[in-house]
Amino acid sequence: MAGSPPVLLGLRDAAMPGPGRGGGQGPAWATNKLGGSADRLPSVRPGSPCCGLCGKPLAHLVQVYCPLEGSPFHRLLNVFACTERGCWGAPRGWKVLRSQYLQAQEQETEDFRAKQKQESSFAAKDWCDEADDWGVSDEANSPACASLQLLGLNEAVSSSLSREIECASQFQQLNLSEATDGSGSLNTHPPVSEGMEMSSPAPVFQPFYISVVDEEDYTGFLDTDHADKLLKEYQQREGVDLEQLMSERFAGEGGNEKYEKSEVKSMDHTFHKFMKRISLCHEQILRYSWGGQPLFITCPPANINKGIPACSNCGSNRIFEFQLMPALVSMLQSDSDLSVEFGTVIVYTCERSCWPTDFNTHQTPLEEFIFVQEDPDQRLFK
């Protein structure tokens, strides 16, 4: 849509050479990755998030290095989730933390402190511009370029997928928080610091680099009938019909039948729209669009925009930044029987991307808002 923020897609790339370490020329915290351990930005305290329900350590799912145009900060977002089945769809079973690190010297710090008092307006940088996505400098031999050649997109995006930044190398562990309950209703309570310390090691998924492409690069490969085919295959594979099963679920429960039928059609339409959009690129594990619109897999609450809490640090509104996609579920690998299931996980962050400006002190990562929608199989058919 003209005028709307661009949508960047994250794809799983090559396995990382160590337990969550960058392996590239840039610092580890400038690496986009899934699994492994969260990396620490300089001057930011590491966190050890635990589940607010069962108390067990949360597993790190994704790390997104996402500086904003017009901001002097390096910027990092980390998403964690509980691997206990009963906690997957619960608000307190997920956490998302934002960390930032000021690149400027003291005078620039003072200038930014004054600027931050005004209404800030940032634009998203090309997500892959400054990120160490795959940890190699040879563009022709990078795993990202190899995968793009297979997808027929090498010429379109390979040049933008091999830029690294030159910064000091340090590490970190992060956290994150907030969400919704399993019914899809919003949890509007302010972020909590519960479960931030753990006594046992956190579960770890095998780390992989995340490469980044522009969704527009895939538009020429879309078969307009493919989305309908995907939906039919999904229903045949699961042996279910969404509209029929939803109708049966509501049958006999009383209430307004007209309302129930309209809800069924709305849910089916939302799911169909979701499947059609991701059919552009089935392998996407993450959609990034700062200030854009999320892609819901089932109908969100009618009051979702009003229910997204303001930033707990500065009081500004939160806006959509990125979401995790269903393909990520099957790509989470571990030596043990670890798993996390979801339909989509949507992250909203402070529109000002606020951050304490006292560079002499170590800061604590700021919790942002996370909205979890379960897979229709979990939510509708259990």
Walk me through the structure:
With 382 residues, the protein is of the alpha+beta class. It is built from 9 helices and 13 strands. The protein has an 11-stranded antiparallel β-sheet with strand order 12-6-5-3-2-8-1-9-10-11-13. It has a two-stranded antiparallel sheet with strand order 4-7. The longest helix has 22 residues, at 257-278.
Entry keywords:
eleven-stranded antiparallel beta sheet; 19% strand; 21% helix; two-stranded antiparallel sheet
Topology:
Layout: E1 8-15, E2 33-34, E3 59-65, E4 68-69, E5 73-81, E6 94-102, H1 106-116, E7 123-124, H2 143-151, H3 154-157, E8 208-214, H4 226-238, H5 242-250, H6 257-278, E9 284-288, H7 304-307, E10 318-324, H8 327-331, E11 344-350, E12 366-367, E13 369-373, H9 376-380
Antiparallel strand pairs: 1-8, 1-9, 2-3, 2-8, 3-5, 4-7, 5-6, 6-12, 9-10, 10-11, 11-13
Helix pairs in contact: 4-6, 5-6
Sequence of strands across the biggest β-sheet: 12-6-5-3-2-8-1-9-10-11-13
Helix coverage percent: 10-25%
Mean pLDDT: 74
Number of helices: 9
**In angstroms, what separates the terminal alpha carbons?**
37 Å
- Radius of gyration in whole Å, from Cα? 21 Å
Order of helices and strands: EEEEEEHEHHEHHHEHEHEEEH
Global structural class: alpha+beta
Low-confidence stretches: 134-185, 187-198
Strand content: 15-25%
State the major sheet.
11 strands, antiparallel
What is the global morphology?
globular
Q: How many beta-strand segments?
A: 13
Quick recap of the structure?
With 382 residues, the protein is α+β, with helices and mostly antiparallel strands. It is built from nine helices and 13 strands. The chain has helices spanning 106-116, 143-151, 154-157, 226-238, 242-250, 257-278, 304-307, 327-331, 376-380; strands at 8-15, 33-34, 59-65, 68-69, 73-81, 94-102, 123-124, 208-214, 284-288, 318-324, 344-350, 366-367, 369-373.
